Amino acid sequence: NEILKFFFFFCSALQLFFTVRNVFQLFCDVVPTYHKENLIKFPHLAAIQHNNCMYLAHHLLTLGHYFRVHLPQPLFEGVATFVDMVPALRKLGAQCFLSQMNVQRTELLERLSTAHNFSNLDEEDNYTAASKALRQVIHQLKQLGSVWQDVLPVSIYCKAMGSLLNTAITEVISKVMMLEDISSAEGEHLHMLCQTLIEEGPLVFIPLVDENKNKRYQEEVPVYVKKWNTFKELVIVLRANLQEIVDRWAEGKGPLALEFSSSEMKSLIRALFQNTERRALALTKIR
């Protein structure tokens, strides 16, 4: 009779154990499939799915150990574990969020593609298009920052927003560096546009509801945006004279030299300044 009771107890415990495993397996199989379109369409849902996966993965590390005292042999000895499901859940959460990040990057680049490569900005239509493109980029990032606010962990939030802002400014840097001729008027327009991004960019970092607490993260933009200092140096150069550029280069030891190669800076100088003896002299000092 005791043997029979133990047998039923063991079978019930085993059945419940695998039922719990099946519930988690169903989550992994059903949620990303059933909600596939919404997880791509709505960044808020993608962030929640990421959090859910990481939360479940965290608890699965200890779930088997926590309840093993209530289980019969051999489940009691550690056979009842959910640790093997942790990598799959973490991967699921990461893939979902990375897919959403790719969607956002694509949208940012599409908006910037309407800026006419930031060329001929002395023409009103081109300046208007470039200005509109940057305003749209800032608006998208601010909206996303609000959607993810108080949802994503602060560290993940800052890395994600930093990566997206970096995508935008890297594209702007690339387009500006490709310009072969920049008149003084165009340089001034470029400076104004880029300065807007420098002023507005940090404001997209709002991981917490309390605005005062967000100032810390807004001041740490260079930590999260890889090309931030490069972008700031570019903005300085757009309004600088030749001597100021040479001084910031400082024989390859200045802040400008940390962000640009000598060939990149020479190319930018040739685009910004007319071919004069002063320009030729400045170019010899950029090495």
Global structural class: mainly alpha
Ranges where pLDDT stays below 50 over 5 or more residues in a row are none
Order of helices and strands: HHHHHHHHHHHHHH
Task: Assign an overall shape.
Answer: elongated
* Overall average residue pLDDT: 92
Quick one: biggest sheet? none
% residues in beta strands: under 5%
What is the total tally of β strands? 0
CA-atom Rg in angstroms: 27 Å
Counting DSSP H or I runs of 4 or more residues, the number of helices is 14
Proportion of helical residues? over 70%
Note the gap between the termini.
Answer: 91 Å
Notes on the protein architecture:
The chain has 287 residues and is an all-alpha fold. It has helices spanning 2-34, 36-41, 43-67, 86-112, 124-148, 154-177, 184-200, 211-219, 221-224, 228-239, 242-249, 255-259, 262-272, 277-285. The longest helix is centred in the N-terminal third of the chain and has 33 residues, at 2-34. The protein is elongated and about 105 Å long.
What is the fold's blueprint, element by element?
Layout lengths: L1 H33 L1 H6 L1 H25 L18 H27 L11 H25 L5 H24 L6 H17 L10 H9 L1 H4 L3 H12 L2 H8 L5 H5 L2 H11 L4 H9 L2
Helix pairs in contact: 3-4, 4-6, 5-6, 5-7, 6-10, 7-10, 11-14
Task: Please sum up the structure shown.
This protein is an all-alpha fold and 287 residues long.
List descriptors.
elongated; mainly alpha; 287 residues
